[in-house]
């Protein structure tokens, strides 16, 4: 459904996306995980035809984003990182406006708006201006707007940024439900938990490059399923083990305060880069 071949995007001397190649299958949830400035949003902007690649190619639903932008736009929905709702219009009016842009009939718009405001749990707020909504409500409305014209591929750029854990989990449930309906989802996040809980496959991105790609399970297996954190003078040292037994045997032989735990995607990033995803 999505294919990138050596995709590169430069801004003057910054290489925001650097020779990225990957494929996303139909009804897969794929996530780009990486720190600020990794190039996640730029990748989405190229895939959604909002900016042109410098070199390499990108296809969505078999259409080239550069030469067939309209065909691509008809297939996709976008919930951007920066909330760009019309804040003086109501919830309904925002959806209505988007439906008109996509030339949906009035009857179809009404039907779809009803479905979507139920889906995002904003029936009571449907006639409130967007400026009266909470941050979490606005994020959900962004997703509803992206879904209005029934896209096959949904791009979600940081869908839960700034939301409290409970609202974040609700949003994850929504995204999982969309997957069961056969929608392909390409999202970005810098939350480890979000990538682990939601994505079938994850690309870990840093400085424009994909430095690791695979299912969360496979990525963690690769570095070792168990981690020992050992208190050192200048913070914590990390050691990676294939099995918990191996880790326990190692811990018995050393003289330092240790934490033994399962590995996560942050550890994958640490192992590959020596840095943390978030500070
Ligand atoms: N329009 C632009 N002009 C110049 N530089 C840009 C532009 N857009 C992005 N960049 C640069 O490209 C790099 C990647 O930015 P991008 O927004 O894609 O990162 P990101 O992974 O989405 O980060 P974040 O997690 O903070 O959203 C950064 O160095 C950024 O400053
Ligand atoms: Mg971004």
Please characterize this protein's 3D structure:
This protein has 279 residues and is α/β, with parallel strands linked by helices. It folds into two domains: 2-215, P-loop containing nucleotide triphosphate hydrolases (Rossmann fold, 3-Layer(aba) Sandwich); 219-273, no CATH class. Helices cover 37% and strands 29% of the residues. The strands form three sheets. A six-stranded mixed β-sheet has the order 6-7-8-3-9-10, sandwiched between helices. A four-stranded antiparallel β-sheet has the order 2-1-4-5, with helices on one face. A three-stranded antiparallel β-sheet has the order 12-11-13. A hairpin with a 2-residue loop joins strand 11 and strand 12 (235-241). Helix 3 packs across helix 4 (106-119) and helix 8 packs across helix 10. It is globular, with a radius of gyration of 21 Å. The two termini are 34 Å apart. The protein binds adenosine-5'-triphosphate and magnesium ion (MG).
Produce the secondary structure layout.
Layout: E1 2-11, E2 14-24, E3 29-33, H1 40-47, E4 55-60, E5 63-64, H2 69-75, E6 76-79, H3 91-101, H4 106-119, H5 135-147, E7 153-157, H6 165-180, E8 184-189, H7 192-198, E9 201-206, E10 209-214, H8 216-223, E11 226-232, E12 235-241, H9 244-252, E13 258-262, H10 265-273
Parallel strand pairs: 3-8, 3-9, 6-7, 7-8
Antiparallel strand pairs: 1-2, 1-4, 4-5, 9-10, 11-12, 11-13
Helix pairs in contact: 3-4, 8-10
The structure holds adenosine-5'-triphosphate and magnesium ion.
